[in-house]
Design goal:
Maltoporin, Chain A, mainly beta, disordered N terminus
Length: about 675
């Protein structure tokens, strides 16, 4: 039914989109002119670089010039909410650097996450993704916590992340820290299977201008950034980005094009040596096409297929004050406001979020380092009248209060560290929740580190599961009436107890290896159960599933030559799910709905004359319950810097197949399309 052509005509492009296309065309033409000028001018001036003699750069940390040993020494903050070396973190953590993003050729944040071991990323269509670690993936996956510059982008309606609206200029990303495994002790509810922490560069390191233009067989993206300073201590940057993606492949034609424009700013003010203030914000507006099956009360099909353009808009503002008291003591106070708006046939949503967070770190005798904090978040939601999705009540205010404390004790000349802590929170659905964790790290020498961890994490019910009323089309289609799915205000939390062990080693200076094994016990997982037959078959959300998962995650790096690196990742995952009699499992908790094996191999070669040749081979195992076959794919990138401030690149993506499926929809029955082979060119000019 999803492949049936729709009789509705598509809405004409809005004026802002026409303006964006024209602006993008001007940017692309300007970049091509600059490129041609760059090829001619150096020879005209005796081969000298096209740079001003007075030009100076602010020195910044360049991960591209680091050895593998130095990369393991990168400082991260997501594991302990304080700076620590990657090699000494007692958790399964992986860092995606700006260099990884640039040389992979990815054009979105979810695509970059494919390189993380343990992470399953799948595209449903050209504007929707499914992203999760250690299983339970789907469009509405709800066991990962995602932050952008410390702003939690959690959506309380389905307890997950809407990836199509959470984006930024990729060139502004400093790094992405990904923790696989529970993070609830520090980050709170819903950090069950992992935490994705996306951190952008300081405004101080993005001074001057940047223009990027990308165009190819599937998409066009244009970006502009400018950074400056006011006085000696206040730095800022402004950016704008526009995206236009074509439809993907499906028999009968697809309707999943994607158009969005966004803009934003960041400022960093060093008030004095001890106080810093960061302000960051952004707005976006766009349309995402989709073909959706909607329920009706009209026989005989009780459903209709509709092509529509989903309206998306929103924005946010974030303020963070950081103060250093001493080498062993500091604090942060952060506030953000976020608005989310989405309108489609099935649901109309407006969600406003206000969040206040405080944390303090200090030292105690006997080599103890304490981090503690308090937080309060409030959501105001409003849902328009719709037949398909109608939460009751339509408007509601939700509150979340939390406090955490964590103590790290080091011993034996800092060879051993013991970390334990807990988070206590109170939410409007289930009341008080506790999420304790204990971790031990033994690092006798810098080249070897062993760690173990035992943690508990919980996921609170979503607004949809607690108060929702969802009318589904007949499923299977032969069933002569639509289905009704209702919320359950007696739902409890989904809970996880996780056991992890890891080992990092660098046997030689040119190689590193990171191995993690885990065993997870899940309780009270969400399922559905039939509670009525008339007037419509009615199902209700219930907590009556249990699951056990275990797996192994491996990340390996090899410096073959000074100019050639190979970076690999392997994932093994096994799910065993138990469902009580009479209950129906959800697609994202199906034990055959996650890939058992995944492989990622990247090659990065720096050739003479500022030429780069990069490749990325990926394998994702089959998803039998979703009828998705396993697949191999290959991306290739050829980059060239004719001079220091200009880069051109040619990228081919998904080259092994003309098109392939990666995921199937759940709940809202939107049409899943197939990812197509694509090629694009990109020009990036900084000044």
């Amino acid at each position: 039914m999803l492949q049936s052509p729709c009789l509705e005509r598509r809405a004409p492009a809005t004026n802002w989109f026409v303006a964006y296309v024209r602006t993008g065309a001007r940017i692309s033409i300007s970049c091509l002119v600059l490129l041609c000028s760059g090829l001619v001018l150096p020879s005209a001036v005796g081969g000298e670089s096209f740079e001003s003699p007075e030009e100076t750069e602010i020195p910044i940390e360049d991960f591209t010039q680091l050895s593998l040993e130095e990369l393991m020494g990168i400082e991260i903050t997501s594991v302990s909410k304080k700076k620590e070396k990657l090699s000494g973190a007692a958790a399964a953590v992986f860092v995606i650097t700006q260099e990884d993003i640039r040389r992979s050729g990815v054009t979105s944040i979810p695509e970059a996450l494919r390189m993380v071991p343990g992470m399953h990323v799948a595209r449903l269509d050209n504007n929707k993704w499914a992203v999760s670690a250690r299983g339970f993936n789907g469009r509405f996956s709800n066991k990962m916590l995602v932050l952008i510059d410390g702003r939690n982008v959690y959506n309380p309606f389905f307890a997950g992340t809407v990836w199509e609206v959470n984006d930024t200029l990729l060139e502004d990303i400093d790094r992405i820290e990904v923790i696989r495994g529970p993070g609830g002790t520090l980050w709170g509810v819903n950090a069950v299977n992992g935490v994705i922490n996306i951190m952008t560069k300081s405004a101080k390191t993005t001074q001057g201008g940047l223009v990027s233009a990308l165009g190819g067989s599937e998409e066009a993206i244009g970006g502009v950034r400018y950074g400056g300073q006011l006085g000696n201590d206040l730095h800022y940057r402004l950016f704008a980005k526009g995206l236009n993606r074509d439809t993907a492949f499906i028999q009968g034609g697809a309707h999943d094009d994607w158009r969005v424009v966004r803009g934003g700013f960041r400022s960093d003010w060093d008030i004095n040596v001890d106080n810093r203030l960061m302000a960051e914000g952004g707005i976006y507006r766009g349309n995402a096409g989709q073909r959706v099956v909607l329920p009706t009360l009209v026989a005989p099909s009780f459903s209709q297929v509709r092509d529509e353009d989903v309206e998306m808009a929103g924005g946010h503002i974030l303020l963070r004050w950081a103060r250093t008291f001493s080498q062993d003591s500091d604090m942060e106070l952060q506030f953000f406001y976020d608005r989310f708006y989405r309108k489609e046939s099935a649901i109309k949503t407006t969600i406003d979020t206000l969040d206040l967070d405080f944390q303090h770190r200090f030292a105690l005798p006997y080599a103890q380092d304490i981090v503690w904090g308090l937080g309060y978040r409030i959501w105001f939601d409003d849902f328009g009248r719709r037949f398909t999705v109608a939460p009751i009540p339509r408007s509601k205010t939700l509150n979340l209060i939390n406090a955490f404390v964590q103590d790290e004790i080091t011993a034996f000349n800092d060879e051993v560290s013991i970390t334990f802590g807990t988070k206590v929170s109170h939410n409007d659905f289930t009341g008080f929740e506790f999420q304790p964790s204990g971790r031990v790290l033994w690092q006798p020498v810098p080249e070897h580190a062993w760690w173990v961890a035992v943690s508990r994490a919980v996921r609170v019910p979503s607004r949809a599961a607690d108060h929702g009323a969802v009318v589904q089309p007949p499923n299977p289609p032969a069933l002569p009436v639509p289905l009704n799915l209702t919320g359950n205000q007696q739902l409890g939390v989904e809970s996880l107890v996780a056991f992890e062990v890891g080992y990092r080693l660098s046997p030689i200076q040119e190689a590193t290896l990171d191995i993690t094994a885990f065993y997870n016990l899940y309780d009270n997982l969400l399922a559905t159960k039939r509670v009525a037959v008339t007037p419509l078959p009615t199902f209700q959300f219930v907590n009556n599933k249990e699951a056990r998962t275990h797996g192994v995650e491996v990340a390996a790096n090899l410096q073959v030559l000074k100019s050639w690196q190979i970076r690999g990742a392997y994932t093994y995952l096994n799910l065993d799910v138990d469902t009580e009699a009479g209950a129906l499992g959800l697609p994202d908790t199906d034990e055959k709905g996650s890939p058992s094996h995944q492989v990622s191999i990247r090659s990065l070669m720096s050739l003479p004359h500022n030429v780069e040749l990069d490749s990325w081979v990926r394998y994702v195992d089959a998803l039998p319950s979703l009828s998705i076959p396993g697949y191999w794919e290959l991306d290739l990138r050829l980059g060239w810097k004719p001079w220091k401030k200009l880069e051109v690149a040619l990228v081919g993506q998904n080259l092994l197949d003309k098109h392939h499926p990666e995921m199937a929809p759940s709940f809202l029955q939107t049409q899943a399309t197939e990812v197509q082979r694509s090629i694009y060119g990109k020009v990036t000019w900084s000044f």
